[in-house]
Amino acid sequence: MATYPPELLYTKEHEWIRVDESIGTIGITDHAQKELGDIVFVELPKPGDRVTAKETFGTVESVKAVSDVYSPVTGDVTAVNSKLQDNPELLNSDPHDTAWLIRVRLKDRRETESLMTADQYEKYIQEATH
Amino acid sequence: MGLATTAGATLKRTPLNAAHRKAGARMVEFGGWEMPVEYSGIIEEHVAVRTRAGLFDVSHMGEIEVRGPEALPLLQFVTSNDVARLKTGQAQYSALMYAQGSAVDDCLVHRLGEGHYLLCVNASNTDKDFDWITRHNARFGADVRNVSADYAQLALQGPLAATVLAKVIRCDLAAIKYYWFTWAECCGVEGLLARTGYTGEDGFEFYFPLAESERVWNALLEAGQPEGLIPAGLGARNTLRLEAAYPLYGHELDEETTLLEANLGWICKLEKGEFLGRDALRKQKSEGTRKKLVGFEMADRNIGRDGYPVLIDDEVCGCVTSGSVAPFLKKNIGLAYVPTGRAEPGREIQIEIRGRLAAARIVPLPFYRRNG
């Protein structure tokens, strides 16, 4: 049974965000990586790019499919996880920590108010799969 | 994340459906069937088949039985390969043909005895194939039956497949040569055991009564535990056949593509006598093909997938018919049709990946060939 870190906030599209002051670290959830299967390639923006809440900022590819990743927040990309270039499989083994995707400087912290807590997200995926 | 959901359409199920779900398989729709795409993961299953062994439920495949004194003439007419060369106990890769030189389906033809043949055909084409053979049978009068509902089919593939099978079989496996078959009792069940497969490894395909599916499946998995045998799904089946450069109907083969364009001239026996498509193939053989199937390798880590455009010299000239990661070769590879004059290995090409151009190179086929 996956445990969803309580310090993260979650989206209905199965992304997570960790907010530290004005910086948000964004990734995909354990549920997402399970659904995708073996992850083989990741396409991410560059530092300096703008991401917009609820819009796609990149793709995560499994063997069979290409999946869009949506940003929970609006902001400018400050960092991109370079480990994922050579080791995309990290997304399968450690999606909530080592395999973060991007960091952004948040434009508006209030955008995070509509996101789910870990408990809410766990309930959400339980209901979605039954 | 854009996660896909499974539609709840009425799909056919093999008797192993519950067993697959119990083993943790992710189920998908394929050719009107609900099939396991993966269990422990496509990459792990693929590597298992290349280094140990994997077990596939391929009961969705179709079987068509053709009998009688007109069986051979009928099959000679509707297929491209020379059926008369088959001895009893031997199989051949072949294609059911259209008059224009393209394939209705690719298939295996097994000679069970004089005037007695069994075809194994693709799941998605079974009804189409049966109708096609039946239509052309009007002038022959052979006994043609769609026996797909009678057969389960399992594929045990990998360098350790024979080691595993030897524990549960009552016959001499070494005596079954590649593309030969015999009747054998496997896990206590009588069936047709063929040394054939779609993975590029040594292996076997076992055709047996549907009702015994779970018994044989479970017995094989248990017998193969010491060898590291694991169940493998359609995901790995696809990446394995792609590394071996085997065509998949609907991708490398379709109504519009001739067998010569698909590098299948070797299963076209133009001197065997009249058959559907022979004249078109003869013509194309003397005039040359306009397009040719090639293999390519991506220069970087991005993946040129099915349907993506292929550019040569800045011009779109085809598209990827099958493209994926190659889990054993650790590259990204694919097949595509390009103009015949621009098909040489080493040529740099580009694949358009969602609006951006990615570098690739034409490489010789197959991508992978097993040792021994």
Helix-strand makeup class of chain B:
alpha+beta
Mean pLDDT across all residues of chain B, rounded? 96
Q: N- to C-terminal separation of chain A?
A: 16 Å
Number of strands of chain A: 9
CATH topology group of one domain in chain B: Gyrase A, domain 2
Number of helical elements of chain A: 4
- The CATH class of one domain in chain B: Alpha Beta
User: How would you write the strand order of the largest sheet of chain A?
Assistant: 1-2-3-9-8-5
Spatial order of strands in the largest sheet of chain B = 11-12-13-10-4-14
Structural class of chain A: alpha+beta
From the alpha carbons, calculate the radius of gyration of chain A and give it in angstroms. 14 Å
Principal-axis shape of chain B: globular
Contiguous uncertain segments of 5+ residues of chain A:
none
Oligomeric composition of the shown chains:
heterodimer
Q: Mean pLDDT of chain A, as a whole number?
A: 96
What do we call the CATH homologous superfamily of one domain in chain B?
Probable tRNA modification gtpase trme, domain 1
CATH class (first level) name of chain A = Mainly Beta
**Most extensive interface between two protein chains, with residue counts:** A-B, 25 and 21 residues
Shape of chain A: globular
Under the CATH scheme, the architecture of one domain in chain B is 2-Layer Sandwich
Strand content of chain B: 25-35%
List the helices and strands and how they pair.
The complex is a heterodimer of chains A (130) and B (372).
Chain A: E1 9-10, E2 15-20, E3 23-28, H1 30-36, E4 39-43, E5 50-51, E6 56-62, E7 66-70, E8 75-80, H2 83-86, H3 90-93, E9 102-106, H4 118-128
Chain B: E1 12-13, H1 17-22, E2 26-30, E3 33-38, H2 42-51, E4 54-57, E5 62-67, H3 71-78, E6 91-97, E7 103-113, E8 116-121, H4 126-136, E9 143-146, E10 151-157, H5 161-166, E11 181-186, E12 189-194, E13 203-209, H6 213-223, E14 230-231, H7 234-243, H8 278-287, E15 291-298, E16 309-312, E17 315-326, E18 331-339, E19 348-353, E20 356-363
Parallel strand pairs in B: 1-3, 4-14
Antiparallel strand pairs in B: 2-3, 4-10, 5-8, 5-9, 6-7, 7-8, 10-13, 11-12, 12-13, 15-18, 15-20, 16-17, 16-19, 17-18, 19-20
